[in-house]
Each structure stands twice: as structure tokens, then as C-alpha cells.
Amino acid sequence: MNEKRLRKRIACERFNILIREAEEMWERDKELSKKYVERAWAIKLRFKLRLSKELKTSFCKKCFAVWIPGRTVDVKFDQREHIIEYVCKECGYKKRFKYK
Ligand SMILES: [Zn+2]
């Protein structure tokens, strides 16, 4: 594996760890939890990581709240239009996806 790919892989792992830590921290310290997400986001930008759909919906891009369904995010399904909508409970930011 070349160095660039290796670095990207490490960055990806760090991203995952930060999101997990943000989840664990949410109940105890929201602000610290958001800092973890913010740091993860900075890593994503720096290494130009491509996130899986799962990771894309694991936090709010606007306020950096980690998204825990039912707690910090509402997930709505529009079965007729085949759309999933994520609504951040912290700031109201909406993210929509088409699904098949
Ligand atoms: Zn938000």
C-alpha cells in the first residue's frame, strides 16, 4: 500500500473513532461531543475523505451535533417519494436522501 492510501486509511479510522466518541459523550457533555465531530469534519476535509452513506448521516454538518436517531435527529420516511429526511433536533438542519 502506498503512503498516500495508508494516510487516508488512518484518517478514516480517526474519523470513525471521533464519531463514536462523540456519540458516547453526547449525554455527558454536548459541547465536547460537538468538538469531536468538528475535529472529524476537519479530518474529512483535509484528507478529502469520501464518506459512506452511514457516516454522512451520523452527524450534523451545520451544528456538529452527532446524530442519534430519536435523540438528536428525527428520521422521516416518505414511502411514496422514496425519500428519507433527517432533521437535526439541535439546529433544524435538514438532509434528504433518495432511496430505492
Ligand atoms: Zn444541527
Q: Return the average pLDDT rounded to an integer.
A: 95
Helix content class = 40-55%
SS class: alpha+beta
What is the overall shape? flat
Spatial strand sequence of the major β-sheet: 1-2-3
Largest sheet: 3 strands, antiparallel
Q: Number of helical runs?
A: 3
Ligands (ions, cofactors included): zinc ion
The sequence of SSEs as H and E is HHHEEE
Poorly predicted ranges (pLDDT <50, ≥5 residues)? none
Report the C-alpha radius of gyration, rounded: 15 Å
For the terminal residues, how far apart are their CA atoms?
35 Å
**Number of strand segments:** 3
Number of structurally distinct domains: 1
Oligomer: single chain
Percent strand = 15-25%
At a glance:
The chain has 100 residues and is an alpha+beta fold. The protein has one domain (3-98).
